[in-house]
Amino acid sequence: MSLLPPPGPARILTLGTLVKTVGRGLWLVASALFLTRSVGLSATQVGIGLTISALVGVLASAPSGYLADRVGPRGVQVGALVVAGTLTVGLIAVRSFPTFVLVGAATALADAVERGARGALIAGAIPADQRVRTRAYLRATTNVGISVGAVLGGFAIAADTRTGYVALILTTAAASLAAALVFLRLPSITPVAAPTHGPRLIALRDRPFLAFTLVDGLMSMHFSLLTIALPLWIAGHTKAPIWMISALTLVNTGLVVLLQVRAASVAATLPAAAGAARRAGVAIALACVLFAASGALPTAGAVGLLGVGSLAHVIGELWHSAAGWAISFGLAPTNAQGQYQGAYGMGYELGKMLAPVVVTTLALGWGVPGWLVLGALFLLLGALVPPVVRWAERTRPIGEPAEPVPALSLDRRSRGSIWQAGSRADGAGTATGGIGAPRGRASTRP
Predict the structure, then answer these.
(1) Which of 83, 302, 332, 380 could form a disulfide with 238 if both were Cys (CB 3.0 to 4.6 A apart)?
(2) 65 compared with 199, residue with greater pLDDT
(3) Is 10-188 a CATH 1.20.1250.20 domain?
């Protein structure tokens, strides 16, 4: 399997994403330590600041996509990356909670603009039958980039000095600026003229699409199972060795890198994508049941159930990601891809905000019954996607057809195997997270 798409815009997007995510991986592993040990903020202050920043990202998502449609997505994305890199350098000047919130909110805004532009850029530069596959490449690349960056960032953690943290911040900023230079090689996308009448932000008036965004965003809470709930569950509620946490994270990351492009083939049409989302809910629900059962078994049994449960989870994760991309592109009018992709990102940001409280309260606070409730929730959310998509298809405006989702032509090369609290692939994805507290792993939605 090739980890790079064929030469052209998709490859440039992939290379730029790799540069960007290596930088963000560097910062991801050290952000919490820098903010608490070097800046002197409390954990509570960090949490409040990240929540405020995440809220800014949610509110700015759809308007950012609208801006990309009107101005042109390449220029908006490059500009957002330059601003984000500059603001990253501003972290060095953070000495208090107010300045942390100010820099964090500004960086979250830049990240939201970059995410919205990325969706419009993919829609404008990549043929319709290759967009989901391109998203899959970007997600696999995001996992590789953040993993490499996280390993390199470990040196700054080991030093635990302000000099080391400052060097890491400057490297992260440089990566953002370098990614902007890479994206300048993309073709310029002609801006879409603003509608002459009616509302501008039509995505926020599209009730079926917003319903899908909400369902998909809540379903994205499953990313926090592996980053938050499962590590604490393994450490405090099972007889499995503690190294299982790292092993399961490594397996998940590796499978996403190897299989996400192949998994994109399940979302060849809107009905197929909706069905994949339903199956994703089943797989993730099964994972929750297996995780719950692992707490009552001896070491060997717990290790076995955790391993099988993690495989079920990553299968659901692959299906869910591919389905979300296909549906978000497929339901969006051709003249509003940016704002629709931005609105789609709002759902993920909402899920990311809710996930820490939801998964810890249920899985850790309630124990086995909580895991079963989580499983039932993901099963329900997955089952809701097909009827919501059918509703959306029925209500597409006549004369403004949604973007088609033709069959994916996967050639042999593709058939193989920092202000965010939580962190989609653009992910995501997304992802692409911003500068901030770590997600805990590399699997994101680009």
Answers:
(1) 302
(2) 65
(3) yes
